[in-house]
Amino acid sequence: MAEDLWKKEYDFAVAVARKAGAVIREAGEKEIKVCTKSSTVDLVTKTDERVEKIIIGSLKEEFGEGTHCFIGEESVAKGEPCILTDKPTWIIDPVDGTTNFVHGFPFVAVSIAFAVNKELEFGVVYSCLEDKMYKARRGKGAFCDDDRITVSDVEEIKKSIIISEHGTDRSPEKVKKIFSTMQKILCIPVHGLRGSGTAATNMCLVACGAVEAFFEIGIHCWDIAAGAVIVKEAGGILLDVDGMSIRSVNCVAINQALCFGETPLLKNRLCLTIQGGPFDLMSRRMVSANNKKIADRIIKEIEIFPAERDDAPIQKK
Ligand SMILES: O=P(O)(O)O[C@H]1[C@H](O)[C@@H](O)[C@H](O)[C@@H](O)[C@@H]1O
Ligand SMILES: [Mg+2]
User: Fold this and answer.
1) Can you give the pLDDT at residue 4?
2) Where does Mg(2+) 2 bind (predicted)?
3) Is the CB of 73 under 6 A from ligand 1?
4) Which residues contact 134 (CB under 8 A, 6 or more apart)?
5) Is 223 annotated as a binding-site member?
6) 21 CA to centre of ligand 1 in angstroms
7) CA torsion sign, 44 to 47 to 50 to 56?
8) What pLDDT digit, counting tens, does each position of 95-137 carry?
9) Structure confidence at residue 273 (pLDDT)
10) How confident is the model over 147-174, as pLDDT tens digits?
11) 267-271 long-range CB contacts below 8 Å, 24 or more apart?
Protein backbone atom coordinates (compact mmCIF):
# COMPACT_ATOMS: atom_id res chain seq x y z
CA MET A 1 0.00 0.00 0.00
CA ALA A 2 1.35 3.46 -0.94
CA GLU A 3 2.86 5.25 2.05
CA ASP A 4 0.54 7.95 3.39
CA LEU A 5 3.22 10.60 3.17
CA TRP A 6 3.47 13.03 6.12
CA LYS A 7 0.49 11.42 7.94
CA LYS A 8 2.66 10.82 11.03
CA GLU A 9 3.78 14.47 11.04
CA TYR A 10 0.17 15.63 10.54
CA ASP A 11 -1.25 13.53 13.36
CA PHE A 12 1.55 14.65 15.67
CA ALA A 13 0.95 18.32 14.72
CA VAL A 14 -2.70 18.00 15.75
CA ALA A 15 -1.66 16.52 19.10
CA VAL A 16 0.99 19.20 19.68
CA ALA A 17 -1.47 21.99 18.77
CA ARG A 18 -3.93 20.63 21.32
CA LYS A 19 -1.18 20.41 23.97
CA ALA A 20 -0.10 24.00 23.21
CA GLY A 21 -3.70 25.17 23.43
CA ALA A 22 -4.00 23.67 26.91
CA VAL A 23 -0.84 25.57 27.99
CA ILE A 24 -2.35 28.82 26.64
CA ARG A 25 -5.64 28.25 28.46
CA GLU A 26 -3.77 27.46 31.70
CA ALA A 27 -1.64 30.60 31.31
CA GLY A 28 -4.82 32.57 30.78
CA GLU A 29 -6.25 31.19 34.01
CA LYS A 30 -3.05 31.74 35.99
CA GLU A 31 -1.64 34.95 34.47
CA ILE A 32 -4.58 36.80 32.99
CA LYS A 33 -7.77 36.06 34.89
CA VAL A 34 -6.19 36.52 38.32
CA CYS A 35 -5.18 40.10 37.51
CA THR A 36 -7.27 43.20 37.08
CA LYS A 37 -7.83 43.96 33.40
CA SER A 38 -5.70 47.12 33.47
CA SER A 39 -2.71 45.24 34.85
CA THR A 40 -2.99 42.36 32.38
CA VAL A 41 -3.22 44.69 29.40
CA ASP A 42 0.25 45.94 30.39
CA LEU A 43 1.36 42.35 30.86
CA VAL A 44 4.07 41.44 28.35
CA THR A 45 3.14 37.84 28.30
CA LYS A 46 5.94 35.33 27.82
CA THR A 47 3.35 32.75 26.85
CA ASP A 48 4.14 33.12 23.13
CA GLU A 49 7.83 32.22 23.62
CA ARG A 50 7.07 29.44 26.09
CA VAL A 51 4.47 27.85 23.79
CA GLU A 52 6.73 28.05 20.73
CA LYS A 53 9.52 26.34 22.70
CA ILE A 54 7.09 23.56 23.73
CA ILE A 55 5.92 23.06 20.13
CA ILE A 56 9.40 23.05 18.56
CA GLY A 57 10.83 20.95 21.40
CA SER A 58 8.09 18.35 20.96
CA LEU A 59 8.63 18.22 17.18
CA LYS A 60 12.41 17.83 17.54
CA GLU A 61 11.95 15.12 20.18
CA GLU A 62 9.55 13.20 17.95
CA PHE A 63 11.29 13.62 14.58
CA GLY A 64 14.91 14.23 15.61
CA GLU A 65 17.14 17.28 15.72
CA GLY A 66 18.22 18.59 12.30
CA THR A 67 15.76 16.58 10.21
CA HIS A 68 13.34 19.47 9.81
CA CYS A 69 13.61 23.25 9.56
CA PHE A 70 11.54 25.68 11.63
CA ILE A 71 10.07 29.11 10.96
CA GLY A 72 8.51 30.31 14.21
CA GLU A 73 7.19 33.78 14.94
CA GLU A 74 9.15 34.07 18.19
CA SER A 75 12.35 32.51 16.76
CA VAL A 76 12.29 34.91 13.80
CA ALA A 77 11.72 37.79 16.22
CA LYS A 78 14.98 36.73 17.89
CA GLY A 79 16.86 36.77 14.57
CA GLU A 80 16.37 33.26 13.19
CA PRO A 81 16.10 33.26 9.36
CA CYS A 82 12.66 33.22 7.74
CA ILE A 83 13.66 31.39 4.57
CA LEU A 84 11.59 28.56 3.08
CA THR A 85 13.93 25.95 1.57
CA ASP A 86 13.07 22.60 -0.04
CA LYS A 87 13.69 20.90 3.31
CA PRO A 88 10.66 19.80 5.36
CA THR A 89 9.78 22.97 7.28
CA TRP A 90 7.40 23.70 10.17
CA ILE A 91 5.83 27.21 10.04
CA ILE A 92 4.53 28.11 13.49
CA ASP A 93 2.56 30.90 15.16
CA PRO A 94 2.33 29.69 18.75
CA VAL A 95 -0.23 32.25 19.85
CA ASP A 96 -2.08 33.92 16.99
CA GLY A 97 -4.06 36.71 18.60
CA THR A 98 -1.70 37.68 21.41
CA THR A 99 -3.50 40.95 21.95
CA ASN A 100 -6.78 39.03 22.23
CA PHE A 101 -5.11 36.69 24.74
CA VAL A 102 -4.04 39.40 27.20
CA HIS A 103 -7.49 40.99 26.94
CA GLY A 104 -9.36 37.73 27.40
CA PHE A 105 -10.99 38.27 23.98
CA PRO A 106 -12.02 34.70 23.05
CA PHE A 107 -10.15 34.13 19.78
CA VAL A 108 -6.64 32.76 20.26
CA ALA A 109 -5.19 30.16 17.88
CA VAL A 110 -2.19 27.85 17.65
CA SER A 111 -1.18 27.75 13.97
CA ILE A 112 1.12 24.97 12.71
CA ALA A 113 1.86 24.34 9.01
CA PHE A 114 4.25 21.94 7.31
CA ALA A 115 5.88 22.52 3.89
CA VAL A 116 8.13 20.29 1.77
CA ASN A 117 9.87 21.49 -1.41
CA LYS A 118 8.23 24.86 -0.69
CA GLU A 119 4.76 23.28 -1.00
CA LEU A 120 2.39 23.40 1.97
CA GLU A 121 1.53 19.77 2.84
CA PHE A 122 -0.81 20.39 5.79
CA GLY A 123 -2.11 23.02 8.18
CA VAL A 124 -3.52 22.85 11.70
CA VAL A 125 -5.23 25.77 13.46
CA TYR A 126 -6.42 25.10 17.01
CA SER A 127 -8.78 27.83 18.24
CA CYS A 128 -8.00 26.98 21.83
CA LEU A 129 -10.55 29.11 23.70
CA GLU A 130 -13.33 27.78 21.45
CA ASP A 131 -11.75 24.28 21.54
CA LYS A 132 -12.10 23.94 17.75
CA MET A 133 -9.45 22.01 15.79
CA TYR A 134 -9.33 23.11 12.14
CA LYS A 135 -7.08 20.97 9.98
CA ALA A 136 -6.34 20.03 6.36
CA ARG A 137 -3.87 17.97 4.35
CA ARG A 138 -3.08 18.78 0.72
CA GLY A 139 -5.61 16.98 -1.50
CA LYS A 140 -7.56 15.46 1.39
CA GLY A 141 -10.17 18.05 2.36
CA ALA A 142 -10.59 20.40 5.31
CA PHE A 143 -12.11 19.65 8.70
CA CYS A 144 -13.24 21.30 11.91
CA ASP A 145 -12.81 18.58 14.52
CA ASP A 146 -14.30 15.58 12.69
CA ASP A 147 -16.70 17.55 10.48
CA ARG A 148 -15.84 18.27 6.85
CA ILE A 149 -15.94 22.02 6.11
CA THR A 150 -16.46 23.89 2.84
CA VAL A 151 -16.48 27.54 1.84
CA SER A 152 -19.65 29.57 1.29
CA ASP A 153 -21.43 29.36 -2.08
CA VAL A 154 -22.29 33.08 -2.05
CA GLU A 155 -21.28 34.83 -5.30
CA GLU A 156 -22.86 38.24 -4.74
CA ILE A 157 -20.57 40.65 -2.94
CA LYS A 158 -23.61 42.38 -1.40
CA LYS A 159 -24.51 39.15 0.37
CA SER A 160 -20.98 38.70 1.73
CA ILE A 161 -19.28 39.20 5.05
CA ILE A 162 -15.65 40.28 4.62
CA ILE A 163 -13.18 39.84 7.46
CA SER A 164 -9.92 41.75 7.88
CA GLU A 165 -7.57 43.16 10.50
CA HIS A 166 -5.88 46.48 11.16
CA GLY A 167 -2.70 44.86 12.50
CA THR A 168 -0.44 46.41 15.11
CA ASP A 169 1.16 49.26 13.14
CA ARG A 170 -0.34 52.62 14.08
CA SER A 171 1.59 54.82 11.60
CA PRO A 172 -0.90 57.37 10.21
CA GLU A 173 -0.22 56.63 6.53
CA LYS A 174 -0.84 52.89 7.01
CA VAL A 175 -3.88 53.36 9.25
CA LYS A 176 -5.32 55.74 6.64
CA LYS A 177 -4.91 53.17 3.83
CA ILE A 178 -6.26 50.33 5.99
CA PHE A 179 -9.41 52.21 6.95
CA SER A 180 -9.88 53.75 3.51
CA THR A 181 -9.87 50.19 2.13
CA MET A 182 -12.31 49.02 4.78
CA GLN A 183 -14.62 51.97 4.10
CA LYS A 184 -14.63 51.29 0.34
CA ILE A 185 -15.37 47.61 0.88
CA LEU A 186 -18.09 48.28 3.45
CA CYS A 187 -19.74 50.74 1.06
CA ILE A 188 -19.78 48.41 -1.96
CA PRO A 189 -21.93 47.53 0.05
CA VAL A 190 -21.24 44.22 1.70
CA HIS A 191 -23.41 42.58 4.35
CA GLY A 192 -20.76 43.20 7.00
CA LEU A 193 -17.13 43.68 7.94
CA ARG A 194 -15.63 41.66 10.80
CA GLY A 195 -12.30 40.86 12.44
CA SER A 196 -11.57 38.15 15.02
CA GLY A 197 -8.10 39.54 15.85
CA THR A 198 -6.27 36.50 14.50
CA ALA A 199 -5.58 35.79 10.83
CA ALA A 200 -5.50 32.06 11.38
CA THR A 201 -9.00 32.07 12.85
CA ASN A 202 -10.22 34.46 10.15
CA MET A 203 -9.07 32.02 7.47
CA CYS A 204 -10.85 29.14 9.21
CA LEU A 205 -14.02 31.25 9.19
CA VAL A 206 -13.60 31.55 5.39
CA ALA A 207 -13.02 27.77 5.15
CA CYS A 208 -16.17 26.88 7.10
CA GLY A 209 -18.31 29.36 5.15
CA ALA A 210 -19.01 31.74 8.04
CA VAL A 211 -17.54 34.61 6.00
CA GLU A 212 -16.79 34.96 2.28
CA ALA A 213 -13.28 36.44 2.35
CA PHE A 214 -10.35 37.49 4.53
CA PHE A 215 -7.62 39.86 3.42
CA GLU A 216 -4.77 41.61 5.15
CA ILE A 217 -1.75 43.63 4.08
CA GLY A 218 1.18 43.34 6.47
CA ILE A 219 0.40 39.80 7.56
CA HIS A 220 3.20 37.25 8.21
CA CYS A 221 3.78 33.77 6.79
CA TRP A 222 3.29 32.13 10.22
CA ASP A 223 -0.14 33.78 10.58
CA ILE A 224 -1.49 32.37 7.30
CA ALA A 225 0.45 29.22 6.31
CA ALA A 226 -1.83 26.73 8.07
CA GLY A 227 -4.98 28.67 7.21
CA ALA A 228 -3.95 28.69 3.56
CA VAL A 229 -4.08 24.88 3.36
CA ILE A 230 -7.40 24.82 5.23
CA VAL A 231 -9.02 27.43 2.93
CA LYS A 232 -7.73 25.74 -0.23
CA GLU A 233 -8.85 22.27 0.87
CA ALA A 234 -12.28 23.72 1.78
CA GLY A 235 -12.65 24.81 -1.86
CA GLY A 236 -11.52 28.42 -1.45
CA ILE A 237 -8.99 30.51 -3.33
CA LEU A 238 -5.79 32.27 -2.24
CA LEU A 239 -4.35 35.29 -4.06
CA ASP A 240 -1.65 37.88 -3.62
CA VAL A 241 -2.68 41.49 -4.11
CA ASP A 242 0.21 41.95 -6.46
CA GLY A 243 -0.26 45.48 -7.64
CA MET A 244 -1.62 47.29 -10.62
CA SER A 245 -2.05 46.47 -14.25
CA ILE A 246 -2.86 49.38 -16.55
CA ARG A 247 -5.84 48.62 -18.78
CA SER A 248 -5.35 51.66 -20.96
CA VAL A 249 -2.55 54.17 -21.00
CA ASN A 250 -3.25 57.85 -20.69
CA CYS A 251 0.09 59.65 -20.92
CA VAL A 252 -1.10 62.92 -19.42
CA ALA A 253 -2.56 61.05 -16.49
CA ILE A 254 0.65 59.07 -16.10
CA ASN A 255 2.62 62.30 -15.89
CA GLN A 256 0.19 63.73 -13.36
CA ALA A 257 0.35 60.53 -11.35
CA LEU A 258 4.14 60.69 -11.38
CA CYS A 259 3.98 64.30 -10.18
CA PHE A 260 1.08 64.25 -7.76
CA GLY A 261 0.73 60.60 -6.88
CA GLU A 262 -2.32 58.56 -7.66
CA THR A 263 -5.64 60.16 -6.78
CA PRO A 264 -9.08 58.49 -7.12
CA LEU A 265 -9.87 60.72 -10.11
CA LEU A 266 -6.52 59.96 -11.65
CA LYS A 267 -6.85 56.27 -10.93
CA ASN A 268 -9.99 56.19 -13.05
CA ARG A 269 -8.31 58.12 -15.86
CA LEU A 270 -5.31 55.86 -15.60
CA CYS A 271 -7.75 52.95 -15.67
CA LEU A 272 -5.60 51.25 -13.11
CA THR A 273 -6.92 47.99 -11.89
CA ILE A 274 -5.40 46.10 -9.03
CA GLN A 275 -5.27 42.44 -9.95
CA GLY A 276 -4.77 39.42 -7.82
CA GLY A 277 -1.62 37.43 -8.47
CA PRO A 278 -0.55 33.97 -7.41
CA PHE A 279 -0.49 33.40 -3.64
CA ASP A 280 2.94 34.19 -2.21
CA LEU A 281 3.39 33.00 1.38
CA MET A 282 6.20 35.48 2.08
CA SER A 283 4.79 38.61 0.40
CA ARG A 284 3.01 40.04 3.49
CA ARG A 285 -0.22 40.44 1.42
CA MET A 286 -3.01 37.95 1.01
CA VAL A 287 -6.63 37.54 0.01
CA SER A 288 -8.42 34.28 0.82
CA ALA A 289 -11.97 33.89 -0.43
CA ASN A 290 -14.71 31.40 -1.22
CA ASN A 291 -14.39 32.12 -4.95
CA LYS A 292 -12.51 34.29 -7.46
CA LYS A 293 -15.49 36.58 -8.14
CA ILE A 294 -15.58 37.73 -4.51
CA ALA A 295 -11.77 37.86 -4.32
CA ASP A 296 -11.42 39.99 -7.46
CA ARG A 297 -14.17 42.35 -6.32
CA ILE A 298 -12.55 43.17 -3.00
CA ILE A 299 -9.02 43.29 -4.46
CA LYS A 300 -10.12 46.27 -6.55
CA GLU A 301 -10.68 48.27 -3.35
CA ILE A 302 -7.49 47.34 -1.52
CA GLU A 303 -4.95 50.14 -1.06
CA ILE A 304 -1.57 48.48 -0.84
CA PHE A 305 1.19 49.79 1.40
CA PRO A 306 4.76 48.49 1.36
CA ALA A 307 5.65 45.72 3.80
CA GLU A 308 9.07 44.07 3.70
CA ARG A 309 8.85 40.43 2.58
CA ASP A 310 9.18 37.87 5.36
CA ASP A 311 12.11 36.27 3.48
CA ALA A 312 13.90 39.57 2.80
CA PRO A 313 17.62 39.42 3.71
CA ILE A 314 18.13 40.41 7.35
CA GLN A 315 19.61 43.92 7.42
CA LYS A 316 22.94 43.95 9.29
CA LYS A 317 22.49 46.36 12.23
O1 LIG B 1 0.19 40.35 17.42
P2 LIG B 1 -1.17 39.73 17.63
O3 LIG B 1 -1.90 40.27 18.82
O4 LIG B 1 -1.11 38.24 17.60
O5 LIG B 1 -2.09 40.18 16.39
C6 LIG B 1 -1.85 39.96 15.06
C7 LIG B 1 -2.25 38.55 14.73
O8 LIG B 1 -1.19 37.71 15.10
C9 LIG B 1 -2.55 38.38 13.25
O10 LIG B 1 -2.99 37.10 13.00
C11 LIG B 1 -3.55 39.41 12.78
O12 LIG B 1 -4.03 39.17 11.54
C13 LIG B 1 -2.87 40.73 12.90
O14 LIG B 1 -3.64 41.73 12.30
C15 LIG B 1 -2.68 41.02 14.37
O16 LIG B 1 -2.02 42.25 14.54
MG1 LIG C 1 -0.07 35.99 14.57
Assistant:
1) 83
2) 93
3) no
4) 124, 125, 126, 127, 142, 143, 144, 149, 204, 207, 208, 227, 230
5) yes
6) 17
7) negative
8) 999 999 988 899 999 999 999 999 999 999 999 999 999 999 9
9) 53
10) 999 999 999 999 999 999 999 999 999 9
11) 270/246, 271/246, 271/247
Q: Which residue has the higher pLDDT, 218 or 256?
A: 218
User: Averaged over 64-87, what is the pLDDT?
Assistant: 95
**Is the pLDDT reported for residue 254 higher than 90?**
no
Residue among 24, 52, 76, 98 whose CB has most ligand 1 atoms within 8 A, to mutate: 98
Annotated binding-site residue? 153: no
Burial 289-298 (b: 16+ CB within 10 A, else e): bbbeebbbbb
The pLDDT score that the predictor gives to residue 29 is 86
List the domain boundaries for the chain. 2-149, 157-299
pLDDT, average across residues 60-85: 95
- Could you identify the atom of ligand 1 that is nearest to the CA of residue 101? 3
**Which ligand is the nearest neighbour of the Cα of 218?**
1
Angle between helices 221-233 and 199-207 (to 10 degrees): 10
All residues with CB under 5 Å from ion ligand 2: 93, 96, 223
Q: Relative to the alpha carbon of 47, which ligand is closest?
A: 1
Whether 240 lines ligand 1, by a CB cut-off of 6 Å, is: no
Contact between 97 and 165 (Cβ < 8 Å): no
Over the stretch 168-193, which tens digit does the pLDDT of each residue have? 999 999 999 999 999 999 999 999 99
Q: How many CB atoms lie within 10 A of CB 4?
A: 11
- Which is the closest atom of ligand 1 to the Cα of 201? 10
Q: Is 74 labelled a binding residue?
A: no
User: For residue 28, what pLDDT is reported?
Assistant: 87
Distance 123 CA to ligand 1 centre (A): 18
Task: Classify 2-149 by CATH class.
Answer: alpha beta
Whole-model pTM?
0.89
d(CA 174, ligand 2 centre) in Å: 19
Ligand 1, residues 73, 102, 206, 223: which to mutate, most atoms within 8 A of Cβ?
223
